[in-house]
Amino acid sequence: xxxxxxxxxxxxxxxxxxxxxxxxxxxxxxxxxxxxxxxxxxxxxxxxxxxxxxxxxxxxxxxxxxxxxxxxxxxxxxxxxxxxxxxxxxxxxxxxxxxxxxxxxxxxxxxxxxxxxxxxxxxxxxxxxxxxxxxxxxxxxxxxxxxxxxxxxxxxxxxxxxxxxxxxxxxxxxxxxxxxxxxxxxxxxxxxxxxxxxxxxxxxxxxxxxxxxxxxxxxxxxxxxxxxxxxxxxxxxxxxxxxxxxxxxxxxxxxxxxxxxxxxxxxxxxxxxxxxxxxxxxxxx
Length: 285
Description:
Elements: H1 26-35, E1 38-40, H2 42-50, H3 53-65, E2 70-71, H4 74-84, H5 87-90, H6 92-121, H7 130-159, H8 171-179, H9 190-212, H10 231-242, H11 249-255, E3 281-283
Parallel strand pairs: 1-2, 1-3
Helix pairs in contact: 2-4, 6-7, 9-10
């Protein structure tokens, strides 16, 4: 029999109430990966636009294989839709290709300038025999760099998500809409949200004190009016309260219906060696 505290006949031991400090076994990790709840963070969803076509296809295939165990807090979708339509995200591949090609062009110009500077410093005349060979080699270089730039541009065109920003044609949106149907948490009330933000700020302050020994003012990120960045602590609150409204039979058996404790396997800023057997996998990138 269990008493009101959850102890068997009142028997308590070293880890009672401190299960999160127990080092997981290989079997714990195996059970987690096979039957644990997989909670996706915002960057996992947004990175689908940044991945090349092959990796994006593979990622959607993996997520599809996990569809019965997926869960997304409401706040994740708030952040997803806030960023999904931005030109920087939808045009990621073209932007990165342009940056790479600009770097190649700059490298070519640097080589030409280096050769010209060397020729000047050694007083190399225009009619010097080596001039013809230098010109031939720089021409070969230019053609090679042009071919590389063309290949990069073509790859960017292939990798760009087709149909965006039209959500009716966007394959990422269509895929996520199918995968996450019925697997998104309800929004917090205004009061709950304020409490979660306050708690996250306190935890962040304590973490800074532990790491640096002094409380330093962090540079505030530019955010749309009325929005707040809360970090991993806020994510933990979202997962622990939100995800318990949905769980697979394996997850329910593993947690016993109890709130998920601290020690988040796969979440940033935490001790990933703790409590992996009773926590969801928080997929982040």
